[in-house]
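Phosphoribosylformylglycinamidine cyclo-ligase, Lentilactobacillus parakefiri. Tokens?
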Amino acid sequence: MDAYKKAGVDINAGYKLVDDIKNLSNNKDLGSFGGLFPLSLGAYKNPVLVSGTDGVGTKLLIAIKANLHKTIGIDLVAMCVNDVLAQGAKPLFFLDYLGVGHLDNEKAKDILAGVVEGVSQAQAKLVGGETAEMPDMYTHGHYDLAGFAVGIADQAKLLSKANPREGDVLLGLASNGLHSNGFSLVRDILFKQNTYSLNDRLAGCNRDLKDELLRPTKIYVKSVLPLVEQGTVASIAHITGGGLPENVTRILPDNLSAVFDYGSWQVPAIMKDLQKIGHLSFDDLLHTFNLGLGMVLAVHSGDADEVQSQLQAAGEIVSRVGRLTSGDKQVIIRKDQQ
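Tokens:
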């Protein structure tokens, strides 16, 4: 093992990290060849497993630049479990992949502690993962992070394009800022076109850039899943890369369009600041960022009041942001309310 360590791979450090994550996650089965999850199917008539995989993108470069790694794992889990939730499924378990050039146990513990926290917020279980030490692949303290979530639903209760109908109300759930999308543009505006520091504070923001940019992606499972299980949600769009146009289109049948009343919800100050500093068009904002909506729920009009009330009781900031109309799968942003 001394020769391998001289080549840049410390096996013993890897063993120590596995033990640390066992303690953090309270899962003593971690470290086996495969992750184990006991599956009880008694509550499901026709169970379907729903899976999702994702990464964090170049938001990782902000965490590396700031040397703050404790929340980036929450982002990772959120990107996966929110997608699973949007299909109408309950997240069951999660696995992560961490690729590093040199294994720094304290940094890795911070990263994976975020994963553990995210899994806890998603009411799921961390059943395994992989930490790969690859000298020369990742340099200058860089690393990569990816994950994989599996959920379950009854086939008849999956959310599909057959559920929404004309007149449905669109409820927008507030995001926690930028979440995990658009960071290549963010970095270009702030650190390439301009010379901002992570310790700077933009005009509209009440926190330093490092804290604003690293706000973790919100996980909506705890508040939204009960409504899915009640059958009071017609469809869900998780607003990620491509913003409202790309993601809301994915839940529309061919005969419906979504009309949003811009100004009916709060757009985060960081996005307005980026628009001003980067001289961005509204179209740039619309197709890059979530504009303050982390999820959009289509709800039948008769259920809208009760769904909104339950979401607010669960701690969500909810706005009536639009409606579904007859159309051809267009996402229309009406700005006359601005």
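The chain has two domains: 2-34+44-157, 169-334.
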